[in-house]
Write a structure and sequence with these properties.
By secondary structure, the protein is an alpha/beta fold. The chain has 13 helices and 15 strands.
């Protein structure tokens, strides 16, 4: 018998797996499931983006490149962000192998075991999981569903950002709630974090998935070059590129050397032909985004109207992102309800508990799907919840 058991370290033993993946795995063998559990559109990446990757492959763009990404993409990101009014610098851009990889790299660069991280809840599970993998301690401030909207008490959030806090993670527009941060709130938070030396990790992945205006306000609009701000972005949502695994980081110059080193130890670099697809997305993708948001607005309104008509369902209208995160009266076990909907209604939703304790009693539906599929899913959900024992 070996003197030491062959097990993972303690931080991994206490880490929960994804309940969204749990429902996905349990769908095997269930016929005619309408899958609305993952956060991705149901359309294939546009032709002009795929063609750019093909041309890159044909041109032999298959070799190692800089830890920070190819210069052409870093320049395209800088130009794209400047067009949105962002303060972006070429030497502050690091290309990554997805948005979640960007978050991991930033946290590896900034967090030590025992560091305190503050995060609004409900939250995308990976945001809470990554600091815990690294041994940091996560404290949450709850969003509340009131007056038909998900909101946060700004004073409560500020009170949680105490001296000694290392980082606050802010995902807005938010997954799963669609919660937005106003420019005024961003200014207050930035000033507070400046005073206390707290890093802001801004998850801006949904900045273009907004229903009022061209883009959501971001800390990049107001931050100075030396502020403790890391902005995370991704090609997944805005350009229908979830499977491509391509993202980027905006960071101050003082952090870039560390990001380059950590990128080397993670993925070394992102495939160059994939990066060429990213350039095409940035330079040619505005009509696609406009069309996408027109479709999402219609699907958001459809989901809110259909589900909001179900007795006992409270469903706010999100200001951004691609989800309806709705509360079901009497639901105390959202995982059980997700299983019931999967097997009884053949609709795949994400259980609210997957997004933290504040999400319990809620369900997340991704409405980035075709109208007929969404109509059918809402009809099935309504029928299921209306029958005895359906909740």
């Amino acid at each position: 018998m070996m003197p030491y058991p062959a097990v993972a370290r303690a931080a991994m033993e206490g880490l929960d797996g994804s309940l969204i993946r749990t429902i996905f795995a349990e769908s095997a063998g269930v016929p005619d499931v309408i899958p609305l559990w993952f956060g991705e559109p149901d359309v294939v990446t546009p032709d002009f983006i795929r063609e750019a990757a093909k041309q890159g492959l044909d041109a032999g763009r298959t070799f190692y490149n800089s830890n920070f990404g190819i210069d052409e993409l870093r320049a395209a990101i800088t130009t794209y962000q400047a067009g949105l009014g962002r303060k972006a610098r070429f030497d502050g851009v690091c290309v990554t192998a997805s948005g979640v990889n960007a978050i991991m790299l930033a946290c590896q660069a900034l967090l030590d075991p025992g560091d305190r991280v503050v995060l609004p809840e409900p939250f995308w599970p990976n945001l809470g999981g990554i600091p815990r993998v690294l041994g940091a301690k996560v404290a949450t401030v709850k969003l509340r569903l009131q007056d038909a909207a998900w909101t946060i008490d700004l004073e409560e959030l500020l009170a949680a950002l105490t001296p000694g806090t290392r980082m606050v993670m802010l995902n807005a527009p938010a997954n799963p709630t669609g919660w937005m941060l106003s420019r005024a709130d961003q200014e207050v938070l930035l000033a507070h974090c400046r005073r206390l030396g707290i890093w802001i990790l801004a998850d801006d992945v949904y900045e273009r998935v907004v229903f009022d205006g061209r883009a959501a306000p971001t800390f990049l609009d107001i931050a100075e070059a030396d502020d403790r701000l890391v902005s995370i972005n991704s090609f997944s949502k805005s350009w229908a590129m979830t499977g491509w695994r391509l993202g980027w980081i905006n960071a101050p110059a003082t952090l870039m050397t560390a990001l380059g080193k950590i990128s080397e130890f993670n993925t070394s670099c992102t495939p160059p032909f994939v990066q060429l697809a990213g350039i095409a997305a940035l330079q040619q993708g505005e009509p696609f985004i406009a069309g996408t948001m027109s479709r999402y607005r219609a699907m958001r309104d459809l989901a809110c109207a259909r589900l909001g008509a179900i007795p006992g369902v409270s469903i706010p209208v999100p200001g951004g992102a691609m989800y309806s995160f709705f509360a079901v009266e009497g639901c105390t076990d959202s995982l059980a309800l997700a299983r019931s909907l999967l097997h009884g209604a053949h609709v795949g939703l994400a259980p609210g508990r997957a997004f933290g304790e504040a999400g319990e009693g809620c369900m997340r539906l991704c409405f980035a799907v075709a109208e007929d599929r969404l109509e059918a899913a809402c009809e099935r959900i309504a029928h299921h919840l209306d029958r005895p024992g359906g909740r």
